Amino acid sequence: MRPKQQIFSYLSLFLFVLSSCKNEETDLRKEYDPSAPVVLTSFYPLEGGAKDKILLNGENFGSDPKAIKVYFNKKEAAVVSSSGNRIYAIVPRLPGDDPRISVRIGEDSVVYENHFIYTAQAQVTTVTGSGDREFVPGTLDQAHVCAKYLELDKEGNLFMTWRDGVGNEKFGVGRVSEAENLVTSMYLAASSPYPYANGITVDRETGMMTVSHESVVEVFFSFDPREGWYPRQRNASFADPHGIPTGNQYMNFISFSPYDGYLYTRSRDGSVVRIHPDTYEATVIHKGSNAAGSKWPYGSQYGQGINPDKPWELWMTLHSNASPNEYRQGLMVLDLRPEHINEGFKRVNATGGSGHRDGPIEDAVFNYPKDIKFDNDGNMFVADYGNHCIRMVSADGIVTTVAGQPGVSGYKDGGPIESMFNNPWGVAVNEDGDIYIADYGNSRIRKLVIE
Fold this sequence. Notes:
This protein is mainly β. It has one helix at 3-26, and strands at residues 39-44, 47-48, 53-59, 68-72, 75-82, 86-90, 100-105, 108-115, 117-118, 122-128, 147-152, 158-163, 171-177, 182-189, 200-202, 209-212, 219-224, 230-235, 237-238, 254-257, 262-266, 272-275, 281-286, 301-306, 313-318, 331-335, 346-347, 359-360, 369-374, 380-384, 389-393, 398-404, 424-429, 435-439, 444-450. A seven-stranded antiparallel sheet has the order 1-3-6-5-4-7-8, with no helix packed on it. Strands 19-23-22-21-20 form a five-stranded mixed sheet, with no helix packed on it.
């Protein structure tokens, strides 16, 4: 919507609401009658974005806003008030493709005939980093970062694993706090054992952060906020031999699942291990490619995440060494529920190698997809490393490019079309749905706000 049109639209809406309020002062408010149908007539405005105000007109709504549910597709909108014939609501964030508005009251559920035209607004900014690859802690405007993977706790602490790639390569774990205006090191090493700049997971209820080791199946690291995130090496204990072959014990990621409270990690041979977060008891819940009849693809992964909207779903991205070939460049999902886990990982996007294509997930193509994270509504964000952009897979399975210029590398803040990245590697999403990006090629951490 153009600025002048938007101003006119808001002015019209304000006058409409003001006029309605004056009329309603003399009208008796009508209560919902369950024996009569709920009727929808029109809504205004016909288009807009997140947090915009909308009026829904009809009959038999009742005057209790707590009894009314309004949805844009499956995304619930906030209902402010109702006069009985008119509902005043707020457009929700990212409702999905071509949203339909539905009203649910009591046993009645009705849908407007016309679609609402939703327009997402996005802005990319730089949080920290100077472009220098050698890690240097400090204030946000002075720190140097070379982050690979990111994750957030519910307090807004942004954690990163990094490798600076300067001289004698060093690895570490760091914390970025926008509230404190500070970047600090939590773990630093130039030789083993170290987390090797791999995936991070956080239990957002306890704040416990866990980082994978990478090349030793039994080892991972935990950082407890009650101990000031002091790093502690943990050793998983297998009751039976895990059987993961030497040379394939690359555990790049570990993910906490609120579905059952366990940690999950996967080796390069495709074996998936479940670890108790307190006792460290470990079990191979499915054998990898070396096992007879295995349905699991071989190969390194470069992203792993749990869908909080469906916490039994473990997602990952497979890279160019995956075997069989049809698994390469794939977005994969594993259902952790006992009755489904033996079905193995399923590829959800199109095969066909590197490229860029938006649309339904089954038709979408990526170019070396790296890290993946979800917002609380089940939208997945992908660091599309080879395409230099950030992609979103909506909860209803539609892929869009939300920031960056596909196939063009660079460094530029701004809106979704003009913003530029250089080999984005890691992503993390906070409680408000803001996306943090480890812009690895630019040695910076960026922030994408979508409304």
